[in-house]
Structure formats: C-alpha cells, structure tokens
Amino acid sequence: MAEPPNTPPRLSPVILFSYPFRIFFLSLAVQAVAIIPLWVGTVTGRLDLPLALPALAWHQHEMIFAWLQAAIAGFLLTAVCVWTGTSRTQGWPLAGLWGVWLMGRLLITLGESLPEWLVIGVNLLFIPLVMLDAGLRVWRARQPRQLPILLVLLGLWVMQTAFLVNASATALDGALIMAITLMLIIGGRITPNFSQGWLRARGLPTEGITVTPWLEKSLLAVMALTFLAVLTLPDPVTGALAIVAGTLALVRILLWRGWRVAREPLLWILHLSLLWIPVGLWLLAASRLGGMPETVWTHAIGLGAMGGLILGVISRVALGHTGRIMTLPGGMVTAFVMIHAGALLRVATGAGGLVWQTGISVSAVLWTIAFGLYLFRYTGILMRPRVDGKAG
C-alpha cells in the first residue's frame, strides 16, 4: 500500500553514510548523552567500568580528544567539500572512517584487559585519516587558506599521542589551546558571515559587523605563542600570553556585534559560545598567576566554548545540509540555555562556589538533557533524505 501524501520518508540507517555530518553528528550526540553520566557514575563510585585508562584520564581523553574529533570530522569533511568543490566522502569509505572512531571508543572504555599498543594505535589512527581526506582535497584545489586548520589538527594529534603514550598532563593543556585555535578559525569564518546574511535577508543594515585581517592574524599568532608557552615556558609567561589572547578574542567578538542578531537562536548560540573563549583564557591566566584551580579554565572551554559551539553548529548544519529552512526545532532553545547553564555551574563548582558533588551532578544533568533534546529533534532529520530531493 502506498504511503499517504506528505508522509515523511522512513528512517534509514543507510542515509547516515551519505554525508559525513550525518553519522558523526548523531554519534557525538549519543556520546555526549552517555559520556558525562558514565563519568559521574564512575567518579562517585556507582559504576565500575573496565576502562583501558585510569578513570580521570579516560574522561579527559574522551571529552578533549574523542568527542571533539567526531565534531571535527562531521563539520570539516562536510565543509571542505563545499570549500574545494569536490565530491563528498560517502558509503563504505565513510563507514570505515566512522568505524575507526567507534572502535576507539569501545577499546578505551571496555579494553582494560587488552594490549596497550592496540588501544593506543586505534585511537591515534582517526585524526590522520581525517587529515588525509581533507588534505588531499585542499591540495588538489590549491587552497592554502585551509592549511592552518590542518596544522591545528596535527597539533591536536601530537598532543593526543603525548597524552596516551606518556600520560602527559601538559598535553591536555596543549590540546585545549589547539581546540580554542580551531574554534577561533571556524567561528571566525561562519559567525560574522551568518550574522550578516541573517540581517541582509531581513533588510537590516550590516554595517559595523567587522572582520579585521590584522586582528585575525594577531590572534592566531598569540595563540601559537600561548601553545608553545603552555608546553615549555614558565607559568608567568603563559599567564601573560593568555591575558593578551583573551583580550584580542573579546575585541574580535565585540566587533561582530552579536547583540544585533539576538532574536535568532541559531546565531546567538555561536556568539555566546565564542564568548567563553576569552573567559577561558583569562581563567587560564588566573590559574598560572593567581592559583585558580586548573579545572576551572578547562571546563570553561570544554563545556562552555566547545559544548555550546558544537551544539550550535551541528543544529545549523543539519538543517542547511538536509535542505530545510533555518528554523530551530522545538525545544532546542531550551537545549542551548541548558548547555550554558551547565557550563556556568561547572565553572562555579571548580572555583569552590558550589558543593562539588552537587555541582557536577546538576551540570551533568543539564548537559545530558541538552544533547538528549538534540537527539530527540534531530535523529529523524539526520536519518532521512534531504527534503528537496537532492543528493546527500
């Protein structure tokens, strides 16, 4: 019997492998819903997982490296096709790439009795494969503008190697600086551009939303110095550079005048999330100069900047690349608010403003609900064909 008119196409797992954003956005949302409750259960003694790493190291790796890598793969391998005018990775090659990422999650979470070389080897394979896919497209298209992204990914991979092989705590700080740099690059491309487009579509003036080349270059240069300082230089130098980087990042965001697009959740989520970057960098300075606990700046970046920006980007990209209008599904504004409320609570907890177990539990619940709402609203979007009938 034929389906009645206007019935949406059935969900299809095969569709997930038609474009990188589909499978990786769904996977990172599933991981986000699972990973924080698992961590809270482990750290509070309610769960005993056969982890391949000590519990804290497992939590750090899965949030700073693995979860971020899924977001990178989903966004970059989708965007680079548009930037370079090349055909997308799809089908079995995409399924194989995703399989490498998934196997890394399973081995590191359940591989307590497995050889260390196997766990480390599989987890270090994913980023080089992503870089190879993106890098070949960039090289063939002769687009040197994309090289900074590849260099940041290389830095992130080196930090992951140092963390897994040598259990380097410094590598975590270096990885977060690389994550900040990547967010600054991508955020600097999409946020002012999307804001101008939204204003233009409504006949509103776009004057004053400014992207300043010297500021862009200066910020990236200071971030590179901050990365080197985190790894090799005394704390006072790192703190001073972090203050400069945070100040430049704030000036840059203010020049985008995010308050002019405050009526559009798909835009204010980007501006608000990027505001966590100067906050996080100043908190890094406070940790090196004034004794602020290290976990405060790491969670400001990890939950506020990374969590908020990733949730905002995957919400927008999933709509645009499935041919839908840019109207946020119901409940997602609540998700956006929750992700930032959870970040505030976690930062306050790290700074001693809340009882530790209460603070991490409530922030974990808010994080989980936020990404749970994404799964509720976007699983059908990600698992169905484009509404305009186009490929992808």
Distance between the termini: 27 Å
- Regions with pLDDT < 50 over 5+ consecutive residues? 1-5
What is the residue-mean pLDDT, rounded to a whole number? 93
Q: C-alpha Rg, in Å?
A: 20 Å
Kindly state the number of beta strands.
0
User: The biggest beta sheet, please?
Assistant: none
Share of residues in strands: under 5%
Helix share bin:
over 70%
Q: Tell me the series of helices and strands, N- to C-terminal.
A: HHHHHHHHHHHHH
Count of helical stretches: 13
Characterize the overall form: globular
| Structural category | mainly alpha
Describe the structure in brief.
This protein has helices spanning 20-43, 55-84, 91-110, 116-123, 126-141, 147-166, 169-201, 213-232, 235-254, 265-289, 294-320, 332-350, 356-382. It is built from 13 helices and no strands.
How would you explain this protein's 3D organization?
By secondary structure, this protein is an all-alpha fold. The protein has 13 helices and no strands. The protein has helices at 20-43, 55-84, 91-110, 116-123, 126-141, 147-166, 169-201, 213-232, 235-254, 265-289, 294-320, 332-350, 356-382. Helix 1 packs antiparallel against helix 13 (356-382), helix 2 runs antiparallel to helix 3 and helix 5 packs antiparallel against helix 6. The chain is globular and about 55 Å long.
